[in-house]
Design brief:
Chains A, B: One of its GO terms (molecular function) is kinase activity. Two copies of one chain form a homodimer. Chain A is an alpha+beta fold. Chain A has a single domain, classed as Jelly Rolls, CATH 2.60.120. Chain A is built from eight helices and eight strands, in the order ααββββββαββααααα.
Chain lengths: ~190, ~190
């Protein structure tokens, strides 16, 4: 693993868990670095999903296509974000969402079995992953509430707060697909 | 704590974590039994939230009221479900959702600090709570996807699968508030 990637992962984990150098090196040895090109698919609907992904650089999107062929974006993922189809990953079912790259991306890949092994062997890593998911759960609840409330302007402001660098990074039509509005509605905001 | 409540909590935790009798008794000693009456409020918007709730019997709902005074139900919670305003609980902010009782209810209450203490002291409990939240995260993602897809019939079928006993337990207008549709639309399904 490149030094830069290792430093990013280390700083990220150390926000939640305390590990010594040897433990961190051991944790690191379970992450596989991967490079992806802009547009490349990582997970496609129907795939069996065995990995989750920690983004070092670049921007990914997880999305699904509804019955009317309309695209919805569930999540953008940039540096230090985690992403996968967690339903498929945890429940060993087939993917219902897609994951691909909006830009070229450097990623660290962790398998389901390696995460469970690390959590079992190292209590601080179990603590780290519990809080990682706690935060994801709260973000998903917030997103659901704002969908129910259906205030597009608020959703847009929340998005910019969540991903300040996004506006210059991805096409506007993808921002519209995250908000669940048309490109025209977005222009009016 | 009543024997019945203790048995329900034990069976629930043992699905995910292995504890010996002394450890389980120690865990139990941090849960406070509480009885609530039908209609009673447990969390009200604006409250500081310091507890999460494990339902022994009865049925709760977490909900919010939008700017147009329309009620949306985020979650029903019945026996063996966990519920709180997790955003407020984890981030030490004020509640944005409400929690009250659809029926009389028996609940076990666990404080934020006791959960963290137990997770630190007992690795299996940290494991249990990680998987508890993993499941909640996946459920929230699924709910979000079905909202985006906006297929009310599918949402209704998912609801009956998730809570088979619900249909006879709660007024139809609350089911409509969970689905985000009018009482009339629900009647047509």
């Amino acid at each position: 693993m490149a030094i830069a990637a290792k430093d990013i992962l280390k700083a990220h984990i150390e926000k939640t868990a305390v590990l010594n150098e040897a433990e961190f090196d051991y944790v690191c040895s379970h992450f596989k670095p991967q490079s992806f090109k802009k547009g490349q698919a990582i997970i496609t609907e129907g795939d069996l999903v065995d990995n989750e992904y920690f983004v070092i650089s670049g921007c990914l999107k997880s999305f699904f296509i509804n019955d009317d062929l309309k695209m919805f974006i569930l999540q953008f993922a940039m540096s230090t974000w985690w992403v996968s189809d967690y339903n498929a990953l945890y429940n060993r079912t087939k993917a219902t969402v897609n994951l691909d790259c909006i830009t070229d991306a450097e990623i660290l890949c962790l398998s389901n079995s390696d995460r469970e092994k690390l959590c079992k062997e190292l209590h601080p890593i179990e603590h780290f992953f519990r809080w990682r998911t706690n935060k994801g759960y709260v973000a998903a609840q917030k997103r659901l509430l704002s969908f129910m409330n259906n205030n597009v302007k608020e959703r847009y402001e929340e998005l910019l707060k969540l991903y300040p660098e996004l506006y210059n990074m991805v096409p506007k039509k993808l921002i519209a697909a995250y908000l669940g509005v048309s490109r025209e509605t977005l222009s009016r905001l």
